[in-house]
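[Discussion] Sanity-checking designs against the backbone

I'm trying to build intuition for which residues belong where. Below is a structure token string of 356 positions. I'd appreciate it if someone posts a full sequence so I can compare it with mine line by line.
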């Protein structure tokens, strides 16, 4: 799981159906079309490891912030440099490419469209093994390369330790969870680029409760040491107690689905962007509504961050409905995944599009 200097995402699969004894692929793996809303809370000490624990988080405070996470079937055709994935996880602006089986969950790479960031593993990272019970543990080595704007490369290498280190009672403000299982992961690595190095350690604690597919509580600690200097430490925490599934689906089915950023309407305050059809063959139409006059730019780029075309560059446009057309032949577009960046003055909306 390759992550930039202080921007990493870790996901480890949650709970069982009855007594919390093991995480299984059937009950706890990523499920296509699930959507989770993680409520940010104030960070608290993770407590002790071992069996028979009582973790009391009854006094934790909500920060009134939330992050939405969605899981989809992976879009075709394959992303250049990222292979063997069957689903994607969209979270915090990152799209993670995952492969899932009844034995393990593996992250193959990720992209961040707005930051023009692409990371692919030469040695992918194992996120979870199934089944996984109290006392189980594993280690895994990972390595890969992250690209910024298609030109700046960052090499990553490291190891991860995952252990189910605690079992007992979890107390949250709204509910008490018996037979909870805590999974701790410690990922240590090194990033190397032209400007120097960065040593990092990411420690995560995830609590899984019976009947819940995903963690109900997560605590995260990220420590970064740029060029071996003073450590920068970031702590975060969240709950996910209102879990639900929008519909059932089978992981690994390569059906093409569309996300909020790849088709339909993408909202950004008073701007609305629509692109169709998506996926497309030869022509793709786009339109957006402007509530007031402003300058607009539209850029097309690929998953490596390379700009394929600047359709509009800081052009003044009137209020009202605006539209245009993208012709693949004009820009010699091959099959693959692209992004259209709509800039309305200083506000940005990004649409993911697929060319067949």
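Best answer:
Here's mine. Compare freely.
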């Amino acid at each position: 799981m390759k992550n930039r200097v202080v921007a990493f995402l870790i996901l480890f699969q949650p709970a069982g159906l009855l007594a919390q004894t093991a995480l299984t692929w059937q009950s706890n793996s990523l499920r296509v079309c699930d959507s989770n809303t993680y409520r940010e809370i104030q960070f608290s000490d993770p407590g002790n490891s071992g069996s028979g624990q009582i973790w009391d988080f009854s006094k934790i405070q909500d920060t009134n912030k939330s992050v939405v996470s969605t899981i989809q079937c992976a879009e075709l055709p394959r992303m250049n440099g990222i292979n063997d994935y069957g689903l994607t996880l969209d979270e915090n602006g990152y799209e993670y490419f995952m492969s899932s089986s009844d034995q393990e969950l593996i992250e193959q790479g990720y992209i961040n469209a707005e930051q023009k960031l692409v990371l692919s593993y030469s040695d992918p990272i194992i996120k979870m093994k199934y089944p996984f019970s109290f006392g189980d543990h594993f280690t895994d080595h990972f390595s890969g390369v992250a690209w910024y704007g298609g030109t700046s490369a960052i090499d990553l290498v490291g190891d991860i330790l995952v252990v189910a280190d605690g079992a007992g009672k979890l107390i949250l403000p709204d509910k008490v969870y018996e037979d909870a299982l805590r999974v701790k992961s410690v990922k240590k690595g090194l990033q190397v680029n032209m400007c120097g190095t960065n040593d990092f350690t990411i420690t995560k604690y995830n609590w899984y409760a019976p009947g819940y597919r995903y963690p109900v509580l997560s605590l995260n600690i990220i420590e970064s040491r740029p060029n071996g200097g003073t450590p920068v430490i970031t702590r975060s925490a969240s709950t996910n107690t209102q879990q639900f599934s929008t519909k059932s689906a089978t992981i690994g089915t390569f059906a093409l689905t569309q996300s909020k950023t790849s088709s339909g309407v993408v909202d950004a305050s008073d701007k609305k962007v629509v692109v169709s059809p998506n996926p497309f063959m030869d022509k793709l139409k786009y339109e957006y509504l402007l509530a007031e006059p402003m300058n607009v730019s539209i850029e097309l780029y690929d998953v490596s961050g390379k700009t394929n075309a600047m359709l509009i560059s800081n052009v003044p446009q009137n209020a009202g409905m605006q539209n245009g057309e993208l012709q693949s032949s004009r820009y010699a577009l091959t099959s693959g995944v692209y992004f259209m960046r709509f800039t309305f003055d200083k506000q940005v909306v990004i649409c993911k599009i697929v060319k067949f």
